[in-house]
Amino acid sequence: MIAKPPFRERFLLWRNAWLMSPKFQRTSMRLPLLRRVAQGHAASMFGIITGFVYTKTLTAAVDLGIIARLASAPAGTADLAASAGLDLPAASRLLAAAAAIDLVEPLEGDRWTLGQRGAALAGNAGALAMIEHHKIFYDDLADPVALLRRGRGGGKLAAFWSYAEAAGRDEPASAADPATDAYSALMAASQPMVAEQMLDAHDFGRHRKLLDVGGGHGAFLAEVAARHPGLALALFDLPPVAEAARAVLDSRGLAHVEAHGGSFRDDPLPTGADLVTLVRILHDHDDAVVAALLAKVHAALPVGGTLLIAEPMAGTKGAEAMGDAYFGLYLWAMGSGRPRTFKAYVALLESVGFHHIREVETALPMVTRMVLARK
Ligand SMILES: C[S@@+](CC[C@H](N)C(=O)[O-])C[C@H]1O[C@@H](n2cnc3c(N)ncnc32)[C@H](O)[C@@H]1O
């Protein structure tokens, strides 16, 4: 006897048969209550189908200096056209498109100011840096089928993140790569929005010494130092990154922050900290690398010490698209790692001996979630 599929599966097949039926689609538009729902679904689907146009409108508005120019003062169409190097019809077309997605807003007399989205963007250096960075991700995604078929990496994102493909292929991390400056600058630009979430959600002041593993140029530690001047701080990253971090930290008056060079895949971690942070680190790596790194963190911590993992995660309610679609494909193109659920981290942490594993809520889980675990 063939077993009956479970209820959920039967329901989903029934629902999908209805949704696919042209008759149902027509009827739902005629019934007032269903029409609302159908319109909402249609609008969000249309947003996905046409989303690339909005992304490119945004890129053009940023690249042509329209967002930066309007951030300082309103301007007329002719002025914006001249400074952007566009003729009037092209500038008008772009401004109308940008207004439709709330990047700019028209004023009296053929003048413009920023829209709500444009204003929020103009004040966010991290988001602007990501818009620039996304050009290479966009190139990698030009043929998504080819990207999925050829396997992970092999494109521009993989070249940008010089350590990632090597980690995915289990080769040693490159120790003298000028590319580290480019990705570290990108990370530093987007770090303040992550640090703010973390510092608001957890009391770092109750720790004695913090070691930030994969700490880049020290942008996170600089934010921690500003809020908790009494906390001893140390950073660990690949040797060229740690060397650059030393210079950056010194120039910011943070000479007391230690910068250790090494690879967490090959070297032990420095000991002496009662709090270790892994900020946007683990999702870059495959499970074997992550399990080995977590075991090293466990070994480096004293009994009772704390590990804090911070990154966007898969299965985040309300931000599924960020965790699973954006990071899923981003990390695939980059050549290693995967977005993980909180549950997946619990299993990995327990497997190396951590306990008291819990999630600490952040205000914007889309930017970062936080997991705490104790040795
Ligand atoms: C995505 S960035 C995150 C940087 C920083 N934590 C932040 O959130 O801004 C990943 C960092 O991990 C470092 N990293 C990658 N592989 C490493 C390894 N094997 N050993 C030490 N650091 C490594 C990179 O150099 C980079 O600084």
UniProtKB/TrEMBL annotation:
CDD domains: AdoMet_MTases
Record keyword Metal-binding present: no
Domain O-methyltransferase C-terminal: 140-354
EC number: 2.1.1.210
PROSITE patterns recorded: SAM_OMT_II
Superkingdom, taxonomy of origin: Bacteria
Gene Ontology molecular function: hydroxyneurosporene-O-methyltransferase activity; O-methyltransferase activity; protein dimerization activity
Catalytic class of the enzyme: transferase
Protein name, per record: Demethylspheroidene O-methyltransferase
Annotated organism of origin: Polymorphobacter multimanifer
